[in-house]
Amino acid sequence: MAKKMFYVLSMIVVLAMVITACAPKAVATEAPMETEAPTMAPATSEPAPAEITLRWRTRPDNQAEIDVYSAVSADLDAAMDGVTLVYEPGGSESSSYQDVLKTEIGAGTAPDVFWIPGTDVADFATRGLIMDLKTMADATTGFSATDFYPGPMFHLTFNPATGKTGEALWGLPRDVSTFALYLNLDLIAEAGADDPRELAKEGKWTWEAFRDVAMKVQALGSDVYGYGANAWWGPYGVWINSAGGSFFNADRTACRLDTPEAIAGLTFERQLYVDDKVAVPYGEDSEPPFMAGKVAMFQNGRWATPGVRANAKFNWDVVELPVGANGEGNWLFWGAYVVNANTEHPEEAWKLVQMLTTAETQGKIAALGANIPSRMSQAAFDAFLTFTPPANNQAFLNGIAEKNKPTAEGPLWAGSWPNYDSIMGPMVSKVLNGEMSIEDYQKTICVEANKAFQK
Amino acid sequence: MQLSKDEKALKITKTMVKITICWHVLLAVFGFLFLFRVISPKAFAGIPLWLSYIAMVFVGFLSLGSIYSIIQLIKNKREGRSMSLIVNYVGFIVSVLMLFQNIGVFLGVDALAKTFGSSIAWLSGVLIGYLIHSLGDRFHYRIRIEERLHKIGKYLALIFFVIFLIKAGLWQAFLYLAKQILIPTNLINGIILIFFGFAIWFMWRQKTALLLNRTNKQTEALEGFLFLSPNLIGFSIFFAFPLIFSLYVSLTDWDAFGNSNFVGLANYFKIFTLNLKQLANSSQEFFQVMDGSVFSELLRFNFLGKPYVLGAADARFWIALRNTLVFGIVTVPLSAIPALFLANILNSKIPGMKIFRAIYFLPSIAAVVGISLIWQWLYNATVGYINYFITIGLNSINTIFATSYPEAHIRWLSESRTALLAIIIVSAWQTMGFNTVLFLAGLQNIPKELYEAATVDGAGKGAKFWKITLPLLAPTTFFVITTTTIQAFQVFEQVYIMTNPPGSPGTSTLTIVLYLYQNGFQRFQQGYAAAIAWVLFIVIFAITLLQFRSQRKTGAYDV
To answer: What is residue B363's predicted lDDT score, i.e. its pLDDT?
Structure first.
């Protein structure tokens, strides 16, 4: 009898779960957090407020960066009355900086202020993990969002509730960066190819000129490569952008990887990998062979400069990306300092975010050579040009110049960027490895990638 | 009237029982009030979901246990004493943990680890003291010198140890703790802790036990559970609760940030939703026969001359499962068979064999992350050592035999055909050492007389291996295969580190645990990740069960 009752109860429980599974999904998105404008403390003889501690974190790439950020933290600590700053260098990209950070947020132990990449802003904002600083920013004298590059600020001021930009403030960009081609000048000279820097100056630095240099270098030997890039969305996105294509439609609500322009960009890149075989095989880390003097043109961001400075044993410089049908097609990479939604000190945290993005602070960090200041000012550009080598720093500035129409890295407010990337990346890798034809890719990529827009 | 000593003691004991009953009444009343507030969503909106569940279970236990204790203690029954002791013991432990957490003792331990390094030099004084004390032992025949040296050594060690503690921050820690304990919530916590402690003492006393008619069985049970309690508490907190909680999470869409809806079996439905359709021709697109916004193509095949396509709502799960199965099927024999032969070789009494045993065992104790990074470098298609040595080998062959083999450009980790194999090689290499040690232990348990008898009967080395070694090693072989299989099905670190992006090229190295991690910690679909974990558990459980059954049939495990 008891056994029978057990079976009946089990069936009821399972049935209830099945029924629950069929129910429409409740919308769990939390409203973005709004904070009160900071109120000025009354000028009375109240006791001095107790010293508060603010923890902040970035994703440094090396010990030199950690040292500079630590020094910056010490300087800002001295400048902020009643606040003790604790700088926590986060893990590098390869040690899952974001995964660790999200886990800490879930556990309630994340710092008050932290850095996140531009692609993650929507995820953090719509889940209610970071604070909307708009009200405090509006009440702050002298603050202007237009001091920063408009691309990042489009996303950093986007209000997911209304779908409009300029109605929120999720943080301020720490720095910006862009791609250039790191050149092994010795290898290019040995191959008898034209100097890409000269070609760029003459306006002849096109896809075909690029391919020509790559092929000449590759002819030096089977272990020498004309071109190298790492396997993530940045490098292949450049070729798609440069051909006039795009990852998404204009309002970033659907996949556009199957348009003729996007396909033209990918076809050219596939040619480099599969047909011409001038590139370091897709999926292999291109940095070691470049440092070993086996790669002529290594596509990477400004963040690679300190490593090349330290390790390259050959003559090197940089050049802007070759021009396709739609120009360079470069990215404007960025990441932002944001405020933890659960911080106990929002006003101090907002002050810290501003201080971390002043021209002075950015200048100290940019001097390391790893990034470009996120404030648009001629003084910042002039200072950046002095941070040599490479001699041709202008190539980076050209990459993010508005006339060259860089595409700002950005999150997906209408979908899930991690999902989109996890569909797009493997399919592109199959194409560039020669395991999938361009035709098959074109037929299926957006059928699959559009699933990332399903809520 | 003057009360006798026994009557006085009885009166005190009865008073203690009454106080304990009052304490349980308080616990029950406040417990139910608290429970009501936890259930009320507004009252505890700030508490994380998992914490509110733990609080509910804990307080519910205290309240119900207290009511039971009250009833039984009023009836003067021994069951009331047992339950009261259990409730108060659990309450005491939780109160201690909460107090430690609130006053920062756990963080203090971390802080101590930092200050320890700066004051460690003072511990050398302790060492000197110990040496002086030991020196005294050499003066057995001059007792005064011996005693003096012992005394000097002892006090010196003590003084330096105290200095070490002070330098490590003992005073600061005391001051900090004193300040912390005065905070009202901590003070209340401390008082509750004392109440729990007194209640335990009241109930544990011999006289209370006699008053409540204790039996030997009850005493033995209580003492037994008391000794078991550290393990039981650890098991409950770190194993049983996470297990049950993950099962619950798999029935929700929890994102780890507090957003959670009960979705029943929806996560499991998504995993197992498949769609089989017949195609008009073998080149027809799958989305022409099924909804491409729901399904992805998983498999194409011909059956009785007709083309079919199998779609899945989550094709990646099935790809990950396939990769994991392939990984397991290849890795287990690759790490078990060579280990068996290696163990046979290492079992011989050749000089220096212990060094070889240690060398083969090294990969098993080395950090997986470090090993993976080194292998990633070795596997590099352009500047890696593996291709370099293959090329040297090929060049030698070309020179000797006038052949023209090209340079090796094997794309170990960047080509779908080889990437999983490359990871299998690393895993098998790493597991092999540990399996070798297990086989060695098994070999040393085989009686030497059997081999001697076989030699007398004229058996050769091969016959001895197949007829004696292998059958008698069956229990070890079974253990090795079972543990290696379980380990193989949980492969994660090697794939995560060696492939970039993890699971690439394409999805050729995507394994179940990696997919689980991506869902749980990158996309924050904790509910879906938990469902994947449970499916993986069922797969591993089923395979292990099959292994046990097949082993039982042979009876080898019972040898």
So the answer is: 87
Backbone angles phi, psi at A333, to 5 degrees: -80, 150
Check if B524 contacts A (Cβ < 8 Å): yes
Portion 288-347 of B in contact with A at CB < 8 A:
292-293, 296-297, 316
The encoded tokens of residue A344 equal: 């106990």
pLDDT tens column, B392-413? 999 899 899 888 888 778 999 9
Within a domain: B385: no
Which CATH superfamily includes the segment(s) A50-176+333-388? Periplasmic binding protein-like II (3.40.190.10)
> Are B44 and B101 contained in the same domain?
yes
Helical segments of B239-279, H only: 241-249, 266-272
- In this structure, is residue B403 part of a structural domain? no
Q: Is B43 part of any domain?
A: yes
Q: What is the CATH number of domain A179-329+415-453?
A: 3.40.190.10
* Cα angle: A193, vertex A198, A199; to 5 degrees: 75
- Give the pLDDT confidence of A247-267 residue by residue, as tens digits: 999 989 999 999 999 999 999
Give the phi and the psi of residue A407 in degrees, each rounded to 5.
-95, 120
Pick from A28-37, A302-311, B197-206: least confident:
A28-37
Cβ–Cβ below 8 Å for A17 and B292: no
* Tokens linked to A323: 């021009």
At residue B256, φ and ψ (nearest 5 deg) are: 80, -5
d(CA B185, CA A303): 49
State the alpha helices, DSSP H only, in B253-294.
Answer: 266-272
3-class secondary structure, A52: strand
User: How close, in Å, is residue B168 to chain A by CA atoms?
Assistant: 22
For residue range A160-172, list pLDDT tens digits in order. 999 899 999 999 9
Query: Are residues B96 and B193 in contact, defined by beta-carbon separation less than 8 angstroms?
Result: yes
Mode of pairing for the β-strands spanning A225-228 and A295-301:
parallel
Say whether both B161 and B89 belong to one domain: no
For residue B272, the enclosing domain spans 260-285+297-309
A182 membership: H or E segment, kind and range: strand A179-184
Q: Which two tokens stand for residue B447?
A: 């009686």
Q: Is A91 an interface residue toward B (CB < 8 Å)?
A: no
